[in-house]
Amino acid sequence: MHNVFFKGRIEVREKYQRFGYNTNRHVKLGSANFPLTLRVNSVQREKEIEQILLENSLVANIKVNANEQENTIELDTILNKPITQSTVPKLNRNDTCNCGSGKKFKKCCGV
């Protein structure tokens, strides 16, 4: 009879689960658990931002103070997230042509 020994850890160390990029995925900026903190100068600007928050289904704590400088950086970063770019793959010579002729690309448009 031969024995098999497992030389690794069965559970991942708790220390390593907390490190890395965005380990707390359930905590999202702008949610009820983690609201945005915004400062505005007027009540009219507060109403504009509340409308933007409703359209994007975000939650924020808005403070109105005419003496302080306006701070809406957190809202701007969420609204201006870069979108994922996708590219159309380049046609190879032996692929069918995309003009719809049914010929190979090298014989049709790839002259």
How does this structure look, described?
The protein has three helices and two strands, in the order αβαβα. By secondary structure, it is an alpha+beta fold. It has a domain at 25-79. A two-stranded parallel ribbon has the order 1-2. Helix 2 links the parallel strand 1 and strand 2. The longest helix is centred in the middle third of the chain and has 13 residues, at 43-55. The mean pLDDT is 83.
Give a quick precis of the structure.
The protein has three helices and two strands, in the order αβαβα.
Could you outline the blueprint of secondary structure elements for this entry?
Layout: H1 14-17, E1 36-40, H2 43-55, E2 60-64, H3 73-79
Parallel strand pairs: 1-2
Widest sheet, order of strands: 1-2
* Spatial gap, N to C terminus: 70 Å
Overall pLDDT score: 83
Specify Rg, calculated over alpha carbons: 27 Å
- Please state roughly what percent of the residues sit in beta strands, choosing from under 5%, 5-15%, 15-25%, 25-35%, 35-45% or over 45%: 5-15%
Helix content: 10-25%
Shape: flat
Instruction: Return residue spans where pLDDT drops below 50 for at least 5 consecutive residues.
Output: none
Major β-sheet annotation: 2 strands, parallel
SS-based structural class? alpha+beta
How many beta-strand runs? 2
Put simply, the count of helices is 3
How do the SSEs run, as a string of H and E? HEHEH
